[in-house]
Amino acid sequence: MNLELRQLRYFVTVAEELHFGRAAARLHMTQPPLSQAIAALEDLLGAPLFVRNRRTVELAPAGSALLPEARRLLLEADALPELARRAAAGEAGRLALAFVTSCDYSVLPSFLRRYSERYPAVHLNLLEATSDVQAEELLRGRIDAGLLIPPLPDKALDELDYMKVLEEPLILCAPAGLIETGTKEVRLQDLPRLPLIVFPREISPALHDAILSCFRAAGITPVIGQLAIQMQTIVSLVSGGMGLALVPQSVSNLMRPGVEYRALADPTPLVETGIAWRRDNPSPVLQGFLELLRNH
């Protein structure tokens, strides 16, 4: 025999009234079935819940111990329909979201603040990861969505959907003192020939190629000095005098001692950031997330 919520409701009502007749009236039933239900519950639990005589009903030690737990279980059970409704509407649940580093300095902070205000009952599990890692995690179903730099790998095109979130130009990230004070824009041709710090192409081919295309347009063949897969690492290497870098404009929000950011005088390719998700993911939480992001 399994414990039923109905039995717990009967028990709590009797415990509150300490009178079977009044408890039966509250429950809109007659007293004999109520007495039988309490006796069955005591048999199931293997302990008396009430001490009864002809005049009084009192809680037995087992009943006193059971009462707060029974109330808690009933409250949780009463909350289940609302929880189910909110989950079905995408208002409660969990969402696993990965993001590339540059999003941490652009769209992510303001959007997460807005999302948390709109959906406070959704728990976000955040993972910082490069675009190639995110594609693998999406294909394996380990994350729900990923903010990444396209393109998606060919093997993912049949399973993933994608939406553009933002475009931004590349800017120069240089060691402090390299650029004359007051200069707002620079030309790559006018810079000292320092090593280039850049993403590995296998990690982010679009960003890598966009950076090198700027140098080709300027008639420069850069010497690649360091490869790094995180924006904060690239900026830290620049701060340490290891070279210069071209980074998405939003990275200028990442301040480091010994680093200066400048716009490029010549037009640069726009770096795109977007969000990808599994096409077959039915999560209402994910759909709510995407809809809010579309309108952000």
Helix content: 25-40%
Report the average pLDDT across residues. 93
CATH architecture classification of the largest domain:
3-Layer(aba) Sandwich
Estimate nothing, just give the exact number of structural domains: 3
- Largest β-sheet summary: 8 strands, mixed
Question: What are its keywords?
Answer:
D-Maltodextrin-Binding Protein, domain 2; two-stranded antiparallel ribbon; alpha/beta; 12 strands; Arc Repressor Mutant, subunit A; 296 residues; 9 helices; 8-stranded mixed beta sheet; 3 domains
Structure description:
- By secondary structure, the chain is of the alpha/beta class.
- The protein folds into 3 domains: 5-88, Arc Repressor Mutant, subunit A (Orthogonal Bundle), CATH 1.10.10.10; 93-165 and 273-294, D-Maltodextrin-Binding Protein, domain 2 (3-Layer(aba) Sandwich); 167-269, Periplasmic binding protein-like II (D-Maltodextrin-Binding Protein, domain 2), CATH 3.40.190.10.
- Helix content is 40%, strand content 24%.
- It has helices at 5-17, 20-26, 31-45, 61-88, 107-118, 131-139, 205-217, 231-239, 284-294; strands at 50-52, 57-59, 92-99, 121-128, 145-148, 160-175, 185-186, 196-198, 224-227, 245-248, 259-264, 270-278.
- The strands form 3 sheets. Strands 3, 4, 5, 6, 7, 10, 11 and 12 form an 8-stranded mixed sheet that branches.
- The model has no long low-confidence stretch (mean pLDDT 93).
